[in-house]
Design a protein that fits this description.
The complex is a heterodimer of chains A (378) and B (237).
Chain A: H1 4-13, H2 15-43, E1 52-58, E2 66-67, H3 69-75, E3 80-88, E4 91-93, E5 95-99, E6 101-105, H4 110-113, H5 121-129, E7 133-137, H6 138-144, E8 151-156, E9 164-171, E10 178-182, H7 183-189, E11 199-200, E12 202-207, H8 210-223, E13 231-235, H9 238-289, H10 294-325, H11 341-368, H12 371-376
Parallel strand pairs in A: 6-10, 7-9
Antiparallel strand pairs in A: 1-12, 1-13, 2-11, 3-6, 3-12, 4-5, 4-8, 7-10, 8-9
Helix pairs in contact in A: 1-10, 2-9, 2-10, 2-11, 9-10, 9-11, 10-11
Chain B: E1 7-18, E2 21-33, E3 38-42, H1 49-57, E4 64-69, E5 72-73, H2 79-89, E6 90-93, H3 105-110, H4 120-134, H5 149-161, E7 167-171, H6 179-196, E8 199-203, H7 207-210, E9 215-220, E10 223-225, H8 229-235
Parallel strand pairs in B: 3-8, 3-9, 6-7, 7-8
Antiparallel strand pairs in B: 1-2, 1-4, 4-5, 9-10
Helix pairs in contact in B: 4-5, 5-6
The chains are: A alpha+beta (378), B alpha/beta (237).
The complex binds adenosine-5'-triphosphate (ATP) and magnesium ion.
Adenosine-5'-triphosphate (ATP) binds at residues 16, 18, 25, 43, 45-51, 205 of chain B.
Chain lengths: 378, 237
């Protein structure tokens, strides 16, 4: 590349202008890449936890259990990704004042639906291996001073069972005040008591996206209408629905910001290159008088713009990549907040495109201008 | 070049359009220059001297007439063809030197060589030779702003001759120089013509400069003629 020295020297000729242009493109590319990555993370959560979680409960009252068979029926309905039952057991520890949330879980499927309940892998394995195992939230463990390996005996208030449990793990999560243990253990122990076996409290399941919430809820409730266990399906939390509605707007907002930023970037770079071209018109004419073909003269000028934009774009893309790459490995909302390759590439491409457009028009002008006329102004 | 002329202009006219008005500048120029000639083109300001030079270099096109330079009919050539033609046959020397300010003297001289298939080493050799001819070897690494006007013009001449072109076109090369520097440049041009056999077309309205040429032509009112006596007197030396 024998022209590189000339291109570089021309770029360094007005360091402040080249620097500011590269900086403007750097900031713009950073914004574009970061915003698009944020949008991408919202729309494509890396784990299922951020998908839309619905809960089916008995149509009459939350206190009424549902037939266990509902779980598999729901699991097989179209539009449903993962399903797990969650049953309120209702027990205290030692003293009735020691009240806390305790649930029976279906251990194989629980984490499909509640991935935000994070239990270290070896503790999870220990829990799964122990039929009388349980695991508790960090806050709850702190409150009662429970440690992994402790044996605790709960007093059941709903069913005639006082579960004897081994603490196998301490979990972290948005709500770490629960105690969770095997549904199998309760089913086994209450095999003979009336009204209990084959019953679950609530059934939780995931759908793919906001647009599935309404139709899938309706489908689930319709499946059990006129059965002995009619269901009422709700979104996990009311605010989630408004969140869902917000998503549509968010996408439009991000797209508009990205477009506005790209346009601004183009105007800033275009203005800088137009100024450079005006200053360089006579020199371009001299090069052409020396025998440089028009395309070469245009290419030299275009290279400057593309180089400045490329440097700005590369840095603007690299920064979010590095920032997000180093973010904590398991935050609750965005477990792996990373810049997807496609978005990183689009950031650099956008910058290069801006450079090509910003440099292209003035370059074309330099090439089109009659040499004799440009030389007269020299 | 043998007997065929290096430059041949036949019935060349050129008019410029100013708003709606056609302003004729050249009204029918015939000019023939053979290899090894050194022609001074004189005439009052605005008579069209630069225009003639531009037409010969193919950086402007005539309104009518034929222009043949170094065997090429310029009328039929595209912009890109003309660029290649200039690269091969024309060395241009400007009044304001027009060196690229961000390049050193030797880098400026090397510019035309970038268009050739020469290797980096060969390019450096050619540059050294050209700088030697113009006597600027010790200023090779200087930037234009570190050179005097005369030195800048010598660098520009080195740039014009480095590809060994068929024809040197110089448009008022001494117009911006003091008398001593001007003499240096004119001596250099004469040496290029006498020692190296370069064909030179020199535009000037300085009779003393024209005196360095072998032939003098006078452009006035759009036509070429002989030197008026007033010019001829001061031009002979
Ligand atoms: N691109 C152009 N558009 C309009 N008019 C032009 C253009 N180029 C040259 N002219 C006109 O043509 C005439 C001849 O110009 P030219 O530059 O050839 O003169 P010159 O003999 O070189 O003058 P000088 O000695 O001042 O350099 C002038 O009147 C000039 O104004
Ligand atoms: Mg002129």
């Amino acid at each position: 590349m024998k022209y590189l020295p000339l291109i570089l020297r021309n770029l360094l000729r007005n360091k402040r202008r080249s620097g500011l242009t590269a900086f403007a493109i750097f900031v713009s590319t950073f914004l574009v890449v970061a915003l698009q990555t944020a949008l991408y993370q919202f729309e494509n959560p890396p784990s299922e936890q951020s998908r839309f979680r619905l809960v089916a409960r008995h149509a009459t009252s939350l206190q009424n259990p549902l037939p266990e068979a509902h779980v598999d029926k729901i699991r097989n309905l179209p539009g449903i990704l993962k399903t797990t039952p969650l049953t309120w057991f209702g027990a205290y520890w030692k003293d009735e004042d020691n009240w806390f949330a305790n649930f029976e879980i279906e251990s194989d499927t629980f984490w499909d639906v509640f991935p935000e309940v994070r239990l270290p892998e070896e503790e999870r394995r220990a829990f799964l291996a122990d039929p009388q195992g349980c695991f508790v939230g960090r806050d709850l463990a702190a409150k009662f001073d429970w440690k992994v390996g402790d044996r605790i005996v709960l007093t059941g208030q709903i069913y005639p069972l006082n579960p004897e449990l081994n603490v196998r793990g301490i979990y972290d999560g948005p709500d770490s005040t629960w105690l969770l243990f095997h549904r199998k253990y309760v089913e086994e122990a209450l095999k003979t008591s009336a009204g209990r076996p084959g019953r679950v409290g609530t059934i939780w399941f995931l759908v793919a996206g906001p647009e599935d919430v309404a139709p899938v809820s309706a489908r689930v409730d319709a499946a059990f209408r006129n059965s002995n266990g009619e269901t009422k399906t709700e979104t996990e939390k009311a605010f989630q629905l408004s969140f869902v509605e917000m998503m549509g707007d968010l996408r439009a907002i991000v797209r508009n910001i990205v477009a506005a930023v790209a346009l601004t970037m183009l105007l800033v770079a275009g203005n800088a290159m137009a100024m450079a071209a005006r200053e360089r018109a006579a020199e371009a004419a001299v090069l052409r008088a020396l025998g440089f073909p028009p395309a070469r003269v245009g290419f030299l000028f275009l290279s400057e713009a593309v180089l400045v934009a490329g440097i700005g774009g590369l840095l603007g893309t690299l920064l979010p990549v590095l920032l997000f790459f180093n973010s904590s490995p398991e935050p609750i909302m965005f477990p792996t907040f990373r810049v997807p390759t496609g978005i990183a590439a689009s950031g650099i491409l956008l910058a290069l495109l801006v450079g090509a457009l910003a440099g292209g028009l003035p370059a074309w002008g330099l090439v089109r201008r009659p040499i004799a006329q440009a030389l007269r102004r020299a | 070049m043998g007997t065929s002329p290096v430059v041949s202009l036949r019935h060349v006219t050129k008019s410029f359009r100013r708003d709606t008005l056609e302003v004729p500048v050249l009204r029918g120029i015939d000019l023939e220059t053979s290899g090894g000639d050194f022609v001074a083109l004189m005439g009052p300001s605005g008579s069209g001297k630069s225009t003639v030079l531009n037409l010969i270099a193919g950086i402007d096109r005539p309104t009518s007439g034929d222009i043949r330079v170094a065997g090429s009919d310029l009328a039929s050539m595209s912009e890109t063809d003309l660029a290649a033609f200039r690269s091969r046959h024309i060395g241009f020397i400007f009044q304001m030197y027009n060196l690229i300010p961000v390049l050193t003297a030797e880098e400026n001289v090397a510019l035309p060589l970038l268009l050739t298939p020469l290797s980096g080493k060969e390019r450096r050799e050619h540059v050294r030779t050209a700088l030697g001819v113009v006597g600027l070897t010790d200023r090779a690494k200087h930037f234009p702003r570190q050179l005097s006007g005369g030195q800048e013009q010598r660098a520009a001449i080195a740039r014009a001759i480095v590809t060994d072109p068929t024809l040197l076109l110089a448009d008022e090369p001494t117009g911006d120089l003091d008398a001593t520097s001007a003499t240096e440049i004119l001596e250099l041009l004469r040496r290029l013509n006498a020692e190296y056999g370069k064909t030179i077309l020199l535009v000037t309205h300085d009779p003393r400069a024209a005196g360095y040429a072998r032939t003098r032509r006078f452009l006035d009112k759009g036509v070429l003629g002989e030197m008026p006596a007033s010019y001829a007197a001061s031009a002979s030396r």
